[in-house]
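Two entries, shown back to back:
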Amino acid sequence: MTGPVRVLIVDDDDLMRAGLRAVLSSDASIDVVGEAADGRVAVASARALRPDVVLMDVRMPHQDGIAATRELAGVAPAARVLMLTTFEDDDYVFGALSAGASGFLLKRTRPEQLIEAIHTVADGDSLLSPSVTRTVIDRIATASPPDPVVAGRLRALTARERDVLELVARGLSNAEIAGELFVEESTVKTHMKRILAKLGLRDRVQAVVAAYETGLVRPGAPGRE
């Protein structure tokens, strides 16, 4: 994207918000446009500030991060939500992704990884901590009934687009998919944009879930750990 990434920090811990602001301010390509201490304020702030990325805590008073993420889809649909929490419980991850989050990281993540994650999410990709990716995706897929509309649209994908979607669902990054298919990374990104457009999906997480739901990839199939 052009220009700095506009970030809204949401966390009920004053010290944590200050620390996150300090880390993010060290990157000239990130602009912290605001802070919020609970989900209700986060939704109002996102509506007013129009951030590119909302760095969202899970457990907060008044309204938690998962409920706030669900509301953001209506008031700030362009904002990408990156959940940041101390909890590695699958229930939190499952709830966050089902609510529309584009990424999930643990608070013990190193500063440089957090900055990279924000840029990744801002660019339209999705991101999960490796320790939770496979179990959570499997759970979402098996808990969600197949969407017949998406299943029908799957037939519109080309053979190469289906290959890309399958590799995305198995946990490979764009760079790894490019290596697997012997193409440029920019080509993989183009395929992903077309896949999302054809399937009527918002982001990479939804594409992964759709791949499992429609049977393109089976839960428990070999993939990246």
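entry 2 starts here
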Amino acid sequence: MIKNVILILPFIVLLACQKNSFKMTTTPNPIPVVKPEDEISYLAIGDSYTIGEAVPLESSFPYQLVKELQKTDMQLSKPHIIAKTGWTTSELQEGINHANLRQKFSMVTLLIGVNNQYRGESKEKYRKEFKELLQAAITFADGNKAHVFVVSIPDWGLTPYGMGSGRETLAVSADIDAFNAINKQESLAEGISYTDITAASRLVVSDPELVAADGLHPSSKMYLDWVVQLAPVVIKKIK
């Protein structure tokens, strides 16, 4: 009996080894992990329209843009934002200098100028400082102009706040168009993508849901409209 047990043991050991070997060969491959260096980094610079005044930060157009791009399997980190309500071009320049960013980004968006128009600053000053901000955006994009995206200035004059401001709405619209003519001209001269959301911003006269609760700034819905226009452009240039 003992002899038979001794003879059987080697077979049991052999079967156990084979079983363990089978388990090892059928272990599934680990799920690929996206490394930080594979992520698309995003810098958004501007004013209240970039920071998303009067809506949750996640509803601002940079955050909604990231969410939209992620639907295409693009791996984006959350946007880094340099923007503040009320900033003009010169104040944005100061904000950038104060931020002292050394990092380069995979993509940069720039939307600035409404407060230059609102305060009655000269268009010559705006042109000069906008050109400087374009160069700053290009530098942040590590010199890649194809990864810089300019967004036009929306028309605040047709919002409830604008209509009650005492300013003539047609004059505001004409002035906004003049400032946008400058930023478009300078963007295209540099070979930089330009997305015109101004016409869409004027739909507030027929759709009150496009305006935030403060009666002035865009709602989440309007920001999404901007994203729908901007996302295909970004995908074409980045992906």
